[in-house]
Amino acid sequence: MSELFESTIVVAMLAATLRIATPLLLAAIGELVVQRAGIWNLGIEGTMLMGAFVAYMVAISSGSLWVALFAAILAGILMNMIMAVCAVTFKLNQFVVGLGMNLFAAGTTLFLYREAAIDAGGETLPGLQTFDNLDLFGLADLPYLGRILFSQQFLTYFAFLMVPLVWFFLYRTRFGLEIRSLGENPKALDTKGLSVSGRQYAALAFGGAMTGLAGAFLVLALTDRFVPGMTGGRGWLAFVIIIAGRWRPWPIMLAVFVFAALEAFQLQAQGIGVKVPYQLLLALPYIVAIVAMMAAKNSKVAQPERLGIPYNRE
Amino acid sequence: MAEMTQWTIVRKPAQPAWVASFFITLFAILLSLAASSVLLVIAGVDVWEAFDALLLGAFGDMEGVAGSLVKAIPLVFAGLSAGLAFRARIWNVGQEGQIYAGSMLAYWLSTSVSLPSVLMIPLILAGGFAGGALLGATSGVLKSRFRVDEIVSTVMLNYVIVLFLSYLLSSKIWMEPGQYYMQTPQVVEASRLPSLFSGVNLHMGLVVAILALIAVQILLSRGTLGYAIRAFGWNPEAARFRGIDPKYMFVVVMVLSGGLAGMAGVMQTFGVDFRLTTTALQGLGATGIIVGVIAGMRPLGIGIAAVLFGSLAQGALFMEVMAGVSSAVVSAMQAIVLIVFISSSAFSRYRLMRVKSNV
């Protein structure tokens, strides 16, 4: 009996790990491309929050999750275009712009959510009918593995599929090479007559789309509604994960697993009967993030040389 | 080279920046109003009615003006905290956490000792500074010893410290006995910041805030430390050749910046709320950062911006009642102001840029 109980917990925890990993992975892989292009985007949290909000509002007003998903992608791209215009075109300080994006998203979504809730005559808005889990290859009923690997959300599979795809793109295609050289030596591209800012806009659009999807996943799959400030540092964790993963896709995926497992453990901890204050469990990802950064102190070697430095011709 | 022009801009920001920044400020304020109107229209609100109520609430009577100033007081400290750190290009975004830390240490002191008001108030002011400085120093040491990006550590500690307060409350260590709400008991009378004038709800924090503005202005414009902060902000590499140790700078600036943020917490907790909850101090840090940035990181500007945003917050309370607009509009409008200011500064000669580019 207790053995059965234990294995159920482990299965639930592993399944939850993959589910929780999804938004982190989507955002981290998307913003990896942005950072490789030399843009030090601190606005991930804001873009994700905006994606979540837009996905939710569109989902309750249109009734279609697919339309909501599409809208979240658009919202994510638009958010990152703030960075593109300010940082790439106007060469403004990327730190300040990123911070501005976060505060902008936090402020506007809070206000528009409250207004929508007031209009609906309450303090909160209702939940959604979320996406169903897939039954991949009809293997969802397989013992243990079925629940962990074969009955997740399609966005989860999409996120993990993006890891090899982005790896292939960055390291095996010409355009990927150009993106990487933006972060190392943009002048080389410029002297060849290739547009630096055009490619940085493209990288930001891709990152925005992925981060917008990450936000959408929070409301359309991980939970069933929008709550102000619901990203709760996930965008920042994605940022930490990129550094801890030394700006490479596979190590980034590993780092995502670590953070996702922590959160999955926290969700199950009560059930297992772990006797620590729940606040400590909630604080764990943030503390681990700092520790990870301490451990990754030599990873600066792997950091794109021109990260965060606006490119000026001359 | 392009880097050279950036150098000259940065080296003498005062005169040309002031002229340019006047028009930029005017332009940015108009644009912010326009953008905020769009937001209000999206939310289905009568824009004129809303703005009318906003102004009336903030400046309509003595009570409104005093309320605006009271709301400006913590913003002065939070704005100075952000401005001072950003001046040195140390990206402390942990104001929120440092504000809580300051309040928490001051609260703990106020419950552990029993003193008359003349001694208690200096004690909690010092305690607030120390609490914020302690958390700031943590990030400073993490940066100088372990090369942990201060942005990451300050953001993460923001979450951690609020969870710690939540623990102190939920475990009943700090919770008011027999209370349902997660809040501490009210602080003792002797620790509350007294009113400046009888009959007006304006506490003495205003005086402390003005003194702090003057002190930071003096600190930045005179003396070795101020020079070091500015030099470090212009170019950390060059500063090192002049004998300014970056490791020392990270800790010192984080202590000062964190301490100022901690004072903001004291102002709110001991001047207005008289008790601590996990949500009472939310948003002060973010607003402080906006204040610091749009003021161009200069103390005088920080004072003005703090009063502006204080009035906005005060007016919004009235607007909520009169026009039925959620007071959450404040955070949206502030963020719009920030975005507009950031993009407007592209047109000015005073640019915020990473100086690393000429290394």
Instruction: Estimate the mean pLDDT confidence of chain B.
Output: 87
The CATH class of chain A is Mainly Alpha
- Count of individual helical segments of chain A: 12
Morphology of chain B:
globular
SSE succession of chain B: HHHHHHHHHHHHHH
What's the gyration radius of chain B in Å? Answer: 21 Å
Determine Rg of chain A (CA atoms, Å). 20 Å
Helix percentage range of chain B: over 70%
End-to-end distance of chain B, in Å? 12 Å
| Element-by-element helix/strand order of chain A | HHHHHHHHHHHH
CATH superfamily of chain A: ABC transporter involved in vitamin B12 uptake, BtuC
Describe this structure in words.
The complex is a heterodimer of chains A (314) and B (359). Helix content of chain A is 72%, strand content 0%. Chain A has 314 residues and is mainly alpha-helical. In chain A, helix 2 packs antiparallel against helix 3, helix 2 crosses helix 9 (196-222) and helix 6 (154-172) crosses helix 7 (174-184). The mean pLDDT of chain A is 89. Chain B has 359 residues and is mostly helical. The model of chain B is unreliable at 1-15 and 354-359 (pLDDT under 50). In chain B, helix 6 (117-146) packs across helix 7 (150-170). Chain B is globular, with a radius of gyration of 21 Å. Chains A and B meet through helix 3, helix 4, helix 10 and helix 12 of A and helix 7, helix 12 and helix 14 of B.
